[in-house]
Amino acid sequence: MNVPDVGTDVDKAAGILHDGGLVALPTETVYGLAAAIDRPDALRRIFSVKGRPIDHPLIVHVVDVNQARTLCCEWPSPAERLSSTFWPGPLTLILRRSGAVPDEVTGGRDTVAIRCPSHPMAQSLLRLVRTPLAAPSANRFGRVSPTCAQHVVDDLDGDVDYVLDGDSSSIGVESTIVDCTVEPVQVLRPGAITADQIERVVGSAAPASGPSRASGMLESHYAPRCKIIAVESSEEGERLSAKPRHRLIDTRTSPDDAARRLYADLRRCDQEGVETAVIVLPEPLGIGLALRDRIMKAAAGA
Fold first, then answer.
1. Residue 252 in contact with residue 205, Cβ under 8 Å?
2. What is the pLDDT of residues 76-110, one digit of tens each?
3. What is the distance between the alpha carbons of residues 146 and 267, in angstroms, rounded to a whole number?
4. Other Cβ atoms within 10 Å of 99 Cβ, number
5. What are the tens digits of pLDDT across the range 144-177?
6. Among 266, 35, 11, which residue's Cα sits nearest to residue 155?
7. Which residue from 167, 253, 181 is spatially nearest to 210, judged by alpha carbons?
8. 25: which of 32, 61, 188, 223 fits an S-S bond (Cβ 3.0–4.6 Å)?
């Protein structure tokens, strides 16, 4: 196995990106596999490394709103309000793309997904590179997202040029995605920023409808190798997990902590030969909505 270089040298990471390489980027949500959007060969390499369908769009990471606006042909009022409220942070906005965004990023669509991460190392890298970075999760397509540098090493072997180690992700599940090209806006993927919070800013928000057009909208995703059974109560979870090679993961007591640990827990199940992970679902409130989404999609694909 070709082990990738791991470290904390942001200048080195920026140089690799300028030269058309791939860097694993820490963010507050999960680690991303980053390439500069003006390096088409590097963008195509993201799809090859991940095994990702070429029509599945990438999320572009920007340093601030001004950089985001260069990627859009229009900047509607909901985008202005949401970005001023939640950026930097775990919120991705879908907007009409400008000519500055290559087809490799959008899967040929006329929209682009943009977010401004709050992780200080991601911010430092974006300021140094001075070019937006396309960065889907740094794992094989459809599998469990990475929340620390070691997860990237485990998944991508030598297929990434540098892993920027920014410790464990503080949130642990992917960003909320909001489509700002429709009225009312649609929440395409739940995350740490909830639909209620979005509605308080823009007035109203609808659930996702229509075809898959953003990361995480497929029915099966985020899947470990072990089987997953999702249950609603701790009692049921304890009963079903009392078998050989079964393990209980209870997310109900502390959903915030459970979100930070979920992907690491699922990876540990695979590493330790667990056959079935029995997961107690959290209440459908706050980040619990995002957790339920990820768990159910993982169960569909495991």
1. no
2. 999 999 999 999 999 999 999 999 999 999 988 99
3. 9
4. 7
5. 999 999 999 999 978 999 999 999 999 999 999 9
6. 266
7. 181
8. 32
